[in-house]
Design goal:
262 residues; alpha/beta; Rossmann fold; 4-stranded parallel sheet; 9% strand
Length: 262
């Protein structure tokens, strides 16, 4: 968010973030600030292979309604139907499934960036780990992914949305090893690889951010009815590669704190 603000002038009212739900801090480690619901705890008790990713925290279908309602709330608040989406990891396939199930919503997505998404499966869901919760969806060769991607990749990308993927493509991301190294790629998208980049770094390292921010400025922010100053700014960011990671977020003191330089 800081890079978007510093490099391209996004305000806090232009940027919204949603993480799939789950068990509070259950996966991140102690202390657990939010206790699991009874339904989630029952699921964990009955399905031990889920380990710390349990409950409703790591599957696509469970999260689609939340994503759809969140997008509608953002549209209502901003007064704009047009949205850009940047999704990371599981968020990639969650959003793509939401777009598949709700074509009207999909038409509102001007630009989509999928970062390190299991579009053709993840190495995590091979072998012994295939019993993890959610692997029935995103294991390589699953029926769920076949439906999402369509016959002969016909549903991997489609208009009017413009599509980009960002991924390692070599051996830096343990979620996509060996035969799965090209899994995040989508046919018809602008597919960018950053060899040696780790799974989480792909979404926040300045070179990756500058690449997909430029894409959003060209095809999202510069979409119908949007700011026409985008293309020149996009070219400047792509050429200069500013890091944009210094300073403080500005705009909503309740979220960012009081900053004298804002």
């Amino acid at each position: 968010m800081l890079q978007f603000q510093n490099d391209a002038g996004y305000s806090m009212q232009d940027m919204y973030a949603l993480s799939y739900d789950g068990l509070g801090n259950y996966y991140a480690g102690a202390p657990t600030r939010v206790q699991p619901t009874a339904a989630d705890q029952d699921y964990i008790d009955q399905n031990h292979p889920v380990m710390y990713n349990g409950g409703h925290g790591s599957a696509d279908d469970d999260e689609v309604p939340d994503v759809c309602r969140f997008i509608e709330a953002v549209q209502w608040y901003t007064g704009s139907r047009q949205i850009d989406i940047v999704a990371h990891s599981l968020g990639d396939t969650i959003v793509r499934e939401a777009m598949r199930l709700y074509p009207t919503l999909a038409r509102d997505v001007v630009a989509f960036v999928g970062i390190a998404g299991a579009n053709h499966g993840t190495t995590v869901c091979r072998g012994l780990q295939s019993e993890y919760y959610g692997c029935d969806e995103i294991s390589p060769g699953s029926a769920w992914l076949a439906r999402l991607n369509g016959p002969r990749a016909s549903r991997e990308t489609y208009g009017p949305t413009r599509w980009m993927t960002v991924y390692d493509g070599a051996e830096g991301d343990p979620f996509f090893d060996g035969p799965d190294s090209q899994s995040p790629e989508l046919k018809g998208a602008t597919n960018l690889t950053f060899p040696g980049a780790y799974h989480n770094d792909l979404r926040v390292d300045p070179p990756e951010v500058d690449s997909y921010l430029s894409f959003l400025l060209d095809y999202g922010q510069s979409g119908p009815g949007a700011d026409r100053t985008g293309p020149s700014l996009a070219r400047w960011i792509a050429a200069s590669q500013p890091d944009g990671i210094t300073g403080n977020l500005c705009g909503v003191p309740a979220l960012t704190g009081p900053n004298s330089d804002c």
